[in-house]
Amino acid sequence: MNDIGQDRPEPAKRSLLWGRFSTLVLAIALVGVVLDQASKLWLLFGYLLGTKGPVQVLPVLDIVLVWNRGISYGLFQQDSDMGRWLLAGFTIVVTAALWVWSARAQTKLAAVALALVIGGAIGNGIDRLAYGAVVDFVHFHVGTFSWYVFNLADVWIVAGVIGLLYDSFKNGPNSAAK
Asked: Given strand 145-146, what is the order of strands in its sheet?
């Protein structure tokens, strides 16, 4: 009872690790990881991209093998085991934080976007643990312009970030304050 004698409903308890969209987040993240890892495994061990070398798919698209020992866009390159494990640990911490965020997601778009980022982070994290570097293989280029080399996990991460940005701005500049 409150101070004026009326019963208040108990506030709904929110789980730190599981929310309204967690099943969806888990499913999308798992599909993302499976597709990312399947593409990398096939290129490395099925097609033998490391042995056969680059493949021109289109005049502006090649499949190449690049070992990224850093993070996005090749930043923070790490050639030591300590650097590798620090990046792997960072990936685990960030992924856990993203999962907690996803458990609190208020919209399906935010949940899907977070699932994509989580799936991409896990996919690249598996590479870092298994090979000491992330397997990148998609290379877009036009004339002398060359885009960085990336993989499906990177696509998931970029799409997820775009989704989070769209979700945060779709209801106007003050929607976050509501």
From this structure: 55-58, 61-68, 134-142, 145-146
169 falls within a domain? yes
Q: Is residue 41 a part of any domain in this protein?
A: yes
What is the torsional sign of CA 114, 115, 118, 123?
negative
Which pLDDT tens digit goes with each residue over 94-148? 999 999 999 999 999 999 999 999 999 999 999 999 998 999 999 999 989 998 8
Q: Is residue 3 part of a domain?
A: no
- List active site positions: 136, 154
Strand ranges inside the chain, DSSP E:
55-58, 61-68, 134-142, 145-146
Domain with 150 in it = 25-173
